[in-house]
């Protein structure tokens, strides 16, 4: 007898959610996209697969649950709706893959963890780097003690973001939206991935990330149209006393900046970049290694793993525990003052496709900081 395929409901399909629609309709992922929830009444104009496949669209999750259900909910809605939506899905007996960041308070994350335990349905988070098999292989080696204790970590990563990005919704670049915290920033959202991956790599078990104790933060805003910061230079201390430096920014000249990471251990130094092989290491005895023999997996490995978990009951590795340190860190960082960048350093740039602000020599300044393990003001760099 043939088994029924998992039924997927996608919540929020007009932004990043379009990639999920594409993945679920252009190839066989072993599941059916049977419904979409989205408040946009014109969604079908932007997502052609809705008409082609005659996928029913509900304006709210309540409207969906009044008529139907699913085996897996994929939540790609704005961050400030995640908690309510996750809880609703779990309470309706539906497993959840929720996009990152899961939420903005440790308390809400704990409530979701509890609901998952109570209902027996899994909750996993859409940090795609955690699902990469080379990242998981590296983590296994770290846990096996192959490199000794971690001593120092420094990473920089930025995406250029301009008017199109900030105008795409009512929460981009905002600290609050309609009375709810959103804390939207490169560190909270677009460039959260590499920081979260570091905490995941350094976590004490395969499912957990390392706890963050404190942060020294320098936050700047170059784009005068946004509320929150768009440049962050951050020195974290983990609960084990490990310094973890993270630099991220949106007002940069190039479309992508990094990621470049240097992870120093007692017995090895591991670097990573966008180039292949992504992770390269040198042991203290000079021998080199990398993870090029490990297939990282599919682009939408997170979705494949979540679909498989519906049948296996074995939740993917990236659960709430893997997101908690980032959630905590976002709040610690957000408590710091935001300094406007001096206007003579900020250049408005117009291109055929977008308008954006860029800060003169920002990338070079922050690389200089990363190389010197410093925050800008410690090197006499005055952005504000
Ligand atoms: N993993 C990644 O690489 C990645 C990349 C981009 C975005 N994201 C995450 O995806 C999520 C969504 O981001 P986005 O940029 O697509 O946001 P967006 O605001 O641009 O789009 C969200 C979609 O949700 C819909 N929506 C809004 N409120 C809703 C509600 N109450 N109920 C149902 N639908 C609603 C909107 O109409 C829209 O279609 C965020 O958590 C974001 O961080 C992840």
TrEMBL record:
Domain Gfo/Idh/MocA-like oxidoreductase N-terminal: from-to ranges: 7-127
Domain of life according to the entry: Bacteria
InterPro entries (UniProt xref): Gfo/Idh/MocA-like_OxRdtase_N, Gfo/Idh/MocA_Oxidoreductase, NAD(P)-bd_dom_sf
Signal peptide region: none
Molecular function GO terms recorded: nucleotide binding
Protein name stated in the entry: Gfo/Idh/MocA-like oxidoreductase N-terminal domain-containing protein
Organism expressing this protein natively: Ruthenibacterium lactatiformans
Phylogenetic placement of the source organism: Bacteria, Bacillati, Bacillota, Clostridia, Eubacteriales
């Amino acid at each position: 007898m043939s088994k029924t395929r998992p039924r997927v409901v996608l919540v929020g399909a007009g932004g990043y959610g379009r990639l999920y629609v594409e993945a679920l309709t252009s190839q066989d992922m072993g599941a059916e996209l049977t419904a979409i929830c989205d408040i946009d009444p014109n969604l079908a104009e932007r997502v052609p697969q809705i008409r082609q496949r005659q996928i029913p669209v509900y304006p709210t999750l309540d409207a969906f649950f009044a008529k139907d259900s699913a085996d897996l909910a994929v939540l790609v809605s704005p961050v400030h709706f995640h908690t309510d939506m996750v809880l609703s899905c779990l309470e309706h007996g539906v497993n959840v893959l929720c996009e990152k960041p899961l939420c903005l308070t440790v308390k809400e994350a704990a409530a979701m963890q509890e609901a998952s335990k109570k209902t027996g349905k899994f909750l996993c988070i859409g940090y795609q780097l955690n699902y990469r098999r080379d990242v998981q292989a590296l983590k296994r080696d770290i846990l096996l003690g192959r490199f000794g204790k971690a001593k120092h970590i420094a990473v920089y990563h930025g995406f250029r973001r301009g008017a199109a990005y900030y105008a795409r919704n009512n929460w981009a670049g905002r600290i609050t939206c309609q009375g709810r915290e959103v804390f939207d920033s490169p560190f909270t959202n677009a460039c959260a991935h590499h920081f979260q991956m570091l905490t995941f790599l350094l976590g004490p078990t395969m499912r957990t990330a390392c706890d963050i104790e404190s942060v020294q933060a320098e936050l700047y805003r170059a784009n005068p149209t946004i509320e929150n910061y768009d440049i962050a230079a951050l020195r974290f201390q983990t609960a084990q006393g490990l310094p973890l430096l993270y630099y991220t920014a949106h007002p940069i000249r190039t479309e992508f900046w990094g990621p470049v990471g240097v992870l120093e251990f007692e017995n090895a130094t591991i670097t990573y970049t966008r180039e292949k092989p992504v992770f390269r290491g040198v042991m203290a005895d000079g021998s080199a290694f990398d993870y090029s023999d490990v297939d990282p997996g599919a682009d939408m490995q997170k979705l494949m793993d979540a679909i498989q978990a519906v049948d296996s009951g074995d939740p993917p590795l990236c659960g709430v525990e893997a997101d908690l340190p980032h959630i905590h860190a976002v709040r610690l960082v957000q408590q710091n003052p935001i300094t406007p960048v001096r206007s003579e350093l900020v250049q408005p740039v117009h291109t055929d496709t977008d308008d954006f602000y860029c800060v003169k020599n920002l990338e070079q300044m922050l690389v200089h900081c990363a190389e010197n393990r410093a925050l800008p003001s410690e090197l006499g760099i005055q952005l504000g």
